[in-house]
Amino acid sequence: MGMEQRVLTLADQPATESLARSLAAASRPGDVILLAGPLGAGKSCFARAFIRAIAADPALEVPSPSFTLVQTYPTDPPITHADLWRLNGDSDLIELGLDFSDRMIYLIEWPDRLGDAAPRTALHIALAWRGAESRTALVRGPASLLGRLLPG
Ligand SMILES: Nc1ncnc2c1ncn2[C@@H]1O[C@H](COP(=O)(O)OP(=O)(O)O)[C@@H](O)[C@H]1O
Ligand SMILES: [Mg+2]
Known about the structure:
Layout: E1 3-10, H1 13-26, E2 32-36, H2 43-55, E3 70-73, E4 79-83, E5 105-109, E6 123-129, E7 135-142, H3 143-149
Parallel strand pairs: 2-5, 2-6, 4-5
Antiparallel strand pairs: 1-7, 3-4, 6-7
The chain binds adenosine-5'-diphosphate (ADP) and magnesium ion.
């Protein structure tokens, strides 16, 4: 499986939201998007814009699931948004709903907590600070997936 990577500059929050919306438009059930980066990098901001785009509801409430760990949205396709920051080592990922069904889209913050359970076909997005508003997104994944989600 050939891997590819792309580096994007996200000048401000609308740029992050616009990236999320274009990935949402090209996404399919079974896609897994891992969102890495430090606190405040924009992981939840990305997830919120992505979920609102799939829901076709720009005002949909999308809280950060840092206490519930997992939040599933009955969209079409359904989306599971997870924030694994507080995951205990022995928590059962399947019990949390992270069974990586091919009928669901997964958006996962703090994906390093998945360890070996992270699907090899996932798209990795690592967000890093460049300044108060600006972020770098390092996007990495199978060439076929990158080609579909980020054409051009
Ligand atoms: N380019 C940007 N992309 C995303 N968020 C940004 C950007 N610039 C500033 N922000 C701000 O950074 C914060 C990101 O918060 P959040 O998405 O909750 O981060 P995380 O989930 O990574 O901890 C928000 O307050 C948002 O307004
Ligand atoms: Mg977050």
